[in-house]
Amino acid sequence: MSHNSLPNTVNQAKAKVIGELLAPVAPFDQKSGRETWTVAFAPDGSYFAWSQGHRIVRLVPWSKCMTNFSSVRKDERLNSARPRSLSRQGSEGSLVPGEPREHTIDCGDVVWGLAFGSSVPEKQSRCVNIEWHRFKFGQDQLLLATGLNNGRIKIWDAYTGKLLLNLMDHTDIVRDLTFAPDGSLVLVSASRDKTLRVWDLKDDGNMMKVLRGHQNWVYCSTFSPDSSVLCSVGAGKAVLLWNMDKYTLIRKLEGHHNDVVSCEFSPDGALLATASYDTRVIVWDPHTGTILLEMGHLFPPPSPIFAGGANDRWVRSVAFCHDGRHIASITDDRLVRFWRIDEKSPQAIGALTNGLCCAFSTDGSILAAGSRDGSVHFWACPRSVASLQHLCRMGLRRVLTTQQVYTLPIPCCMQDYLAYRSL
């Protein structure tokens, strides 16, 4: 039987397009080098950043994006016009003093990874001699880290666009960056040199640790919400979990049949989603290493041999919505899919040519997806009212491991629900 896209498309809603950001195209510009390898939202929702290609990173106030997208939709209703992109002409001169400013940053090399870091909530550095540091990051500081093709990491002030630090230790492309969400300004970089490196930006960017365990390229890494665990994924089917208090390997998760290229924890830390070139997104219990759900992008499911080869359903990116119930995936079949964690078929789909990466906005209402031509497209996340049971489950799972759930003096069915075994 031939492999096709998932069935039941009749029941799948069409994802609602919100707007797009288009990269400027110069005369005789070639497509190579224009890729948007990464997109990122600031933790406080103030900025959106994306790599435009050709060494350029663009920072745009997110509120301005939403205002422009709203005006576009209003014009469409009035004039039935074609959707247009956010206009960036003359933007610098029309700002109100004190408002976030747009910035265009030339990073000096191709940008593969982006991450925002904030010292809110405030957390002390692990370094003792903090008073001797060049930089004293205050609570109003917002940093942007960029991972480059030459192995360097550059740290920028997001409010001014000024270069603050230049971190040099990787020997190959820095593919991904992630900040600890606890405000410590601890940064982890994932590289094609097969290592992860841990940096303390409150200690002037001092490299604290090198994590070795991958046998091939490292594609992506992500912190658990409490910053205690790091997941890293890479070539050779690798999914690794690290204890970030001791910098030790906890376990390797076995289940993918091809390179694993993207990962993200659920907001309560009870679930972990990983995306692979094997045509699947797997949802794991990171506490036990158990596979809870497989989101397949081919029907019928491919054999491990087919999934391990060059197929046209490579999953490029996965993102966990902040409501804890929705997951988005970007694939090579020119589709973006929105999934519910309790369903095996997509809830909504949208068209996206040559998609590479995706991320949800801070409030979880919008998904941003970057593509090979340097542009970014935005969709509204499918919305529904969360049940009280789910909200209670998320609240409990923020503080309880799976093992602790099964020690609670409650019925087994309730234990399974809290452990997401009912998926």
UniProtKB/TrEMBL annotation:
Residues 80-100 are annotated as: Disordered. SMART domains: SOCS, SOCS_box, WD40. Pfam families: SOCS_box (PF07525), WD40 (PF00400). Keywords: Repeat, Ubl conjugation pathway, WD repeat. The keyword Oxidoreductase does not apply. Pathway: Protein modification; protein ubiquitination. WD repeats lie at residues 167-209, 211-252, 253-294, 315-349, 359-379. The keyword Repeat applies. One of its GO terms (biological process) is intracellular signal transduction. Residues 382-423 form the SOCS box domain. This is WD repeat and SOCS box-containing protein 1. It comes from Electrophorus electricus (Electric eel). The lineage of its organism: Eukaryota, Metazoa, Chordata, Craniata, Vertebrata.
